[in-house]
């Protein structure tokens, strides 16, 4: 039996990737709309890839783990609080609690050392932490929802949910970061 | 200060819950996620040069999240499939199995196809909203060159990381996706810069 079904992968991937491409054009639009703020705060532009990378990483690790667990039959596609599910969600929350402040401090320190802008040092950890935690909570929820829905419909979450979630993560992350920065300033 | 204490307490509580049920996930993902997010600061640096390059190629900034996202999506779907394949045993780490090869070919094909589509979306968005915009042919060329270059390089890197971490006894689900996504972003943005320089140099 061949496990790699080329037709199926293409059939499942192309619609999702097209959807993702369309969504990501909107995050690009959002980014270019805020060009003025990014020029005022050059540090923010440098943070953006790191920030959306953490979101993307956390959400794709949890989705990949969920889908492997679903494939192996360790998790049933329902919202019952099983131990394995709790373990996955809590460990990802712990990871984000630690990594967002670190990113913020490093970015703040870099910004301070390079003298890129006059914004206070504490702004960066504050913004990355607040925006990050909100985004991660939203993304974990979306990840569970989408994995279960696709699995129940007989699709492979590996092909469908991981792409959709990273793109949604980019969009939610970029807008949260820019919104929170706007609020704090 | 009080917020900080609450934060510490919350972290400790979470910490204990996690400890009870297994440190393994945190242990394997946390260092990688932090390391690669700091690594992404390089992408941020290159992003500044993309911002200045955008003067020669108006509308370029709209393409950037899409290009990065697409790269990440295709290589993480590839990574996730390779991981599931390793877990289920139809991809072996001993030799280049057919399952692995087919998956990599699919990733490169998808990358070309989607770059083409993305450039058309970006051009549409740009010409409807932007004050200035480069031609459709420039969008398509920049996007296709970036897609091909980064697609080929990234497929090999993703497969390599998954197989290496499996051999080292790590769970490839925890390591492959974060690392290939971050390396992918830097490589994609370098490819994008090269493609923009080339296409602008053509002067179409």
Number of strands of chain B: 0
Ranges of chain B with pLDDT <50 over ≥5 residues?
A: 17-21
CATH architecture of chain B: Orthogonal Bundle
Structural class of chain B: mainly alpha
Question: In percent, how helical is the residue content of chain A?
Answer: over 70%
> Which range does the strand content of chain A fall in?
under 5%
Number of domains of chain B: 1
Put simply, the count of helices of chain B is 6
CATH H-level superfamily of chain B = SLC41 divalent cation transporters, integral membrane domain
Biggest contact: A-B, 69 and 72 residues
Question: How large, in whole angstroms, is the Cα Rg of chain A?
Answer: 18 Å
For the residues shown, what is the average pLDDT of chain A? 82
Largest sheet of chain B: none
Based on Cα principal axes, name the global outline of chain B.
elongated
**Strand content range of chain B:** under 5%
Q: Tell me roughly what share of residues is in helical segments of chain B.
A: over 70%
Molecular shape of chain A: globular
Write down the domain tally of chain A: 1
Largest sheet of chain A: none
Describe the model.
The complex is a heterodimer of chains A (185) and B (204). By secondary structure, chain A is mostly helical. Helices cover 84% and strands 0% of the residues of chain A. Chain A has six helices and no strands. In chain A, helix 3 (42-72) runs antiparallel to helix 6 and helix 5 runs antiparallel to helix 6. Chain A starts with 5 loop residues before the first helix and ends with a helix. Chain B starts with a helix and ends with a helix. In chain B, 50% of the residues are buried. Residues 17-21 of chain B have low confidence and may be disordered. The interface between A and B is large, with 69 and 72 residues.
């Amino acid at each position: 039996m061949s496990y790699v079904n080329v037709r199926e992968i293409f059939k499942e991937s192309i619609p999702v990737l097209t959807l993702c491409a369309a969504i990501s054009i909107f995050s690009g639009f959002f980014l270019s709309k805020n060009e003025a703020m990014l020029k005022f705060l050059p540090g923010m532009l440098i943070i953006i890839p790191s920030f959306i990378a953490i979101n993307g990483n956390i959400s794709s690790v949890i989705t990949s783990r969920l889908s492997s667990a679903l494939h192996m039959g360790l998790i049933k596609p329902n919202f019952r609080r099983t131990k394995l599910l709790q373990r996955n969600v809590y460990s990802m929350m712990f990871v984000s609690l630690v990594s967002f402040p670190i990113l913020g401090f490093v970015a703040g320190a870099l910004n301070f050392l390079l003298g890129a802008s006059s914004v206070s040092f504490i702004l960066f950890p504050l913004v990355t932490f607040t925006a990050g935690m909100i985004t991660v909570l939203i993304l974990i929820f979306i990840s569970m929802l989408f994995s279960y829905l696709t699995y129940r419909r007989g699709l492979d979450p590996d092909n469908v949910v991981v792409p959709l979630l990273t793109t949604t993560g980019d969009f939610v992350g970029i807008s949260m970061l820019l919104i929170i920065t706007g609020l704090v300033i | 200060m009080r917020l900080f204490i609450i934060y510490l307490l919350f972290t400790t509580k979470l910490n204990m819950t996690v400890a009870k049920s297994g440190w393994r996930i945190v242990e394997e993902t946390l260092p990688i996620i932090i390391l690669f997010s700091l690594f992404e600061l390089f992408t941020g640096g290159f992003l500044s040069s993309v911002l200045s390059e955008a003067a020669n190629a108006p509308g370029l900034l709209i393409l950037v999240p899409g290009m990065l996202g697409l790269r990440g999506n295709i290589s993480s779907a590839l990574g996730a499939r390779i991981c599931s394949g390793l877990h289920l045993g139809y991809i072996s780490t001993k030799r280049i199995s057919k399952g692995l090869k087919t998956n990599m070919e699919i990733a490169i094909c998808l990358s070309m196809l989607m770059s083409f589509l993305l450039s058309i979306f970006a051009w549409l968005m740009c010409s409807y909203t932007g004050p200035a915009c480069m031609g459709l042919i420039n969008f398509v060329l920049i996007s296709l060159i970036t897609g091909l270059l980064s697609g080929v390089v990234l497929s090999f890197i993703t497969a390599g990381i998954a197989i290496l971490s499996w051999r080292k006894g790590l769970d490839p689900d925890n390591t492959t996706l974060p690392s290939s996504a971050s390396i992918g972003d830097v490589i994609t943005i370098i490819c994008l810069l090269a493609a923009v320089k080339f296409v602008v140099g053509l002067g179409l």
